[in-house]
Input
Amino acid sequence: MIRPDAAQKAQWEAEGYLVFENAIQGEALKRLQTAFDYWADACKAEWLERVEAGEAAATFYDIPNPFEKDPVFIDIVDYPSYYGALMAFTDDELILLAPQVRTVAPWPVSYTGWHPDVPQSSPLHIKVQIYVNDVPSGCGEFAYVPGSHKPDAGPYTRPMRQESMPGHKTFPGKAGTAIMFNSYGWHVSMDNHSDVPRQSIILIYEKRTPGRVSPEQFAAISESCQTPARRQLFSLA
Output
């Protein structure tokens, strides 16, 4: 397990994010890309039907129940390049809440505006966004306001234009880049002005807290969670 060094710990505390370039690479990245493409295509028709029925947004779609479709989506949850940092920042009390295996369609306006995910009163909430394809600037890249995760930061308001948010930083990156961020902080997906969908996986974690563990949620993949560490991570123990 690769624990964060002193510089990474300082950046996490001060700015609320870390970037892991080449977090997933080589054959592992190719396998992830293949599974993503296959299941995104297989699920697309159902998504379009839901869009037509007014039950889903046209700007993005998620592969439903990805853990049950391919074990590659399970294997990235505790991937060595960032798993140690997740464990360190949660005092080794890490649980997974959910995955989002997401395609963001080219669109002149982002599917979401600037926001934090949870209030400061919630247990520590961390996300890791993994770029499955290359995400250049202007192609729906992730953006964050460094330091906005702190209790005394702000106040912040949602601007009309994504690029008008004071103090924000954008994160273009190559396929396999992983961006870890404190979800108390303000963040967004920038507008995708390209003609290429953005493919990314958002893994949602939290510091384990009594009453927030749900063993039923991941019971269907229990065969893939045989080690004590994985059973804890997936709230199966």
Q: What stands out?
A: The chain has a mean pLDDT of 94. The chain has one domain: 6-233. The CA atoms of residues 43 and 84 lie 33 Å apart.
